[in-house]
């Protein structure tokens, strides 16, 4: 059932974003007086096809929902043009007007992202409180004297409301290769900590950047939410509500710390101290069962599930109409700039190409965000819409950005490029796009095979 929900959320998300993108091309073309022959969401065989309007435009929902297109009269050479429609062909337009039609698709995606982010601001999206739960030994976080229990209140002068705010800010600083100044508050004591992100090694910014490179994780209480039957936890009497406080005499500041200690001791006896639901401290001997992860590495499991987060660790911020729109504009500027900068840094080798996601990863995120609620799904749509808009603006032949280059050159030269040059450029563009898609699929498969 969860797989079906994920597929449905993916199809819905891609359908919405393709509809937005192609609608941009469609409406600007109609405004310019161009006759539109077909408006298709998806590729391949038509599942639904209808003709509407005085131009009898064919509206199609096709079988493969991984894109779409708007077919305009006169786009293709050798096309038969009815005499009465000769003035309504795409190629009869001045290059500046064709430029605007090509630009309209990506711009529609960016405009939608502003509205979606504003919607997120109006609805309010629950986030995890920015409290540090784990700091890895010898990590950048440890060197900056960050400690479990500290609450992050600001990053480079900007207020931090949730853990996601902090994560996005650190990613942005790492991509820009500038230091990150974190302000923390621990029981009223305000301290500033500096992370020298400008000196990170090349290829440092990748998946799990916060945990693997910075070396810290959020605070999640080490409270038992459920105990699986016939497991080590059930055998020693752990029950929902018990709070783990020490393992082998080492304090357990958060769930992440507990998980790491248990996973690193498969089939070895641990001394576990917990506080029961009645407030009584107990110490037991427990031996984690050994399992093999996807990479074949032995890890320990005791059969417990984390309890739901308490209300004081969930932060929800609502904004008014005007503030929500400003939030939408600020968010799209921040994410667009970060996306462009990430592409540049990836070419330079400072950002890992492992960040490129394909349809499998997008489908997973779509399913997770849809299950989380309307606001998380809107936030996901906004982020992917920005990525789609920026990707289509890249000067790669066959993408909108490639067409923009062709039309700009035509305006500068006073005449279009020869069909042979355009055809060769488009063939190169197809190869580049296939290479990018293949690499994205490779990353998706690698993520599935990695624990």
Automatic annotation (TrEMBL):
It comes from the Bacteria. Its main location: membrane. It is found in: Membrane. Its cofactor is Zn(2+). Keywords: Hydrolase, Membrane, Metal-binding, Metalloprotease, Protease, Transmembrane, Transmembrane helix, Zinc. Its EC number is 3.4.24.-. GO terms for biological process: proteolysis. GO terms for molecular function: metal ion binding; metalloendopeptidase activity. It is a multi-pass membrane protein. The chain crosses the membrane at residues 6-28, 99-125, 377-409, 421-442. InterPro entries: PDZ, PDZ_6, PDZ_sf, Pept_M50_Zn, Peptidase_M50. Gene3D superfamilies: 2.30.42.10. It holds the Pfam family Peptidase_M50. GO terms for cellular component: membrane. Residues 121-188, 210-278 form the PDZ domain. Belongs to the peptidase M50B family. This is Zinc metalloprotease.
């Amino acid at each position: 059932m969860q797989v079906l929900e994920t597929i449905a959320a993916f199809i819905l998300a891609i359908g919405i974003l393709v509809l937005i993108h192609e609608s941009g091309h469609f409406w600007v073309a109609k405004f310019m007086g161009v006759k539109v022959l077909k408006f298709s969401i998806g590729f391949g065989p038509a599942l639904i096809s209808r003709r509407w309007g005085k131009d009898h435009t064919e509206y199609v929902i096709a079988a493969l929902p991984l894109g779409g297109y708007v077919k305009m009269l006169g786009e293709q050479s050798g096309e038969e043009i009815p005499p009465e429609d000769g003035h309504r062909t795409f190629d009869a337009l001045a290059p500046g007007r064709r430029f605007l039609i090509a630009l309209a698709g990506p711009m529609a995606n960016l405009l939608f992202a502003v509205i979606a982010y504003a919607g997120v601001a109006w609805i309010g999206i629950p986030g995890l409180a920015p409290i540090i739960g784990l700091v890895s030994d010898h990590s950048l976080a440890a060197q900056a004297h960050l400690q479990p229990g500290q609450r992050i209140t600001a990053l480079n002068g900007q207020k931090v409301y949730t853990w996601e705010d902090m994560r996005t800010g650190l990613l942005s600083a790492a991509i820009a290769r500038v230091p990150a100044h974190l302000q923390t508050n621990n029981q009223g004591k305000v301290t500033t900590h500096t992370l020298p992100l400008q000196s990170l090694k090349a290829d440092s910014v990748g998946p799990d950047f916060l945990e693997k490179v910075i070396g810290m994780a959020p605070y999640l209480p080490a409270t038992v939410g459920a105990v699986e039957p016939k497991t080590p936890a059930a055998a020693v009497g752990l029950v929902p509500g018990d709070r783990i406080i020490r393992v082998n005499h080492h304090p357990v500041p958060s769930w992440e710390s507990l998980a790491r200690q248990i996973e690193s001791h498969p089939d070895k006896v641990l001394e576990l101290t917990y506080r029961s639901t009645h407030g009584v401290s107990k110490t037991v001997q427990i031996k984690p069962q050994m399992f093999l992860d996807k990479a074949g590495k032995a890890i320990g499991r005791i059969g417990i599930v984390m309890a739901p987060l308490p209300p004081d660790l969930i932060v929800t911020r609502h904004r008014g109409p005007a503030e929500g729109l400003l939030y939408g504009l600020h968010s799209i500027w921040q994410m667009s700039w970060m996306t462009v900068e990430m592409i540049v840094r990836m070419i330079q080798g400072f950002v890992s190409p492992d960040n490129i996601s394909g349809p499998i990863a997008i489908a997973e995120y779509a399913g997770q965000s849809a299950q989380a609620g309307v606001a998380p799904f809107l936030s996901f749509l906004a982020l992917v819409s920005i990525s789609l808009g920026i990707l289509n603006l890249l000067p790669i032949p066959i993408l909108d950005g490639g067409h923009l280059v062709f039309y700009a050159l035509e305006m500068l030269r006073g005449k279009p490029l020869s069909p042979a040059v355009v055809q060769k450029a488009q063939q190169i563009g197809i190869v580049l796009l296939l290479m990018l898609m293949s690499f994205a699929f490779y990353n998706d498969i690698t993520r599935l095979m990695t624990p």
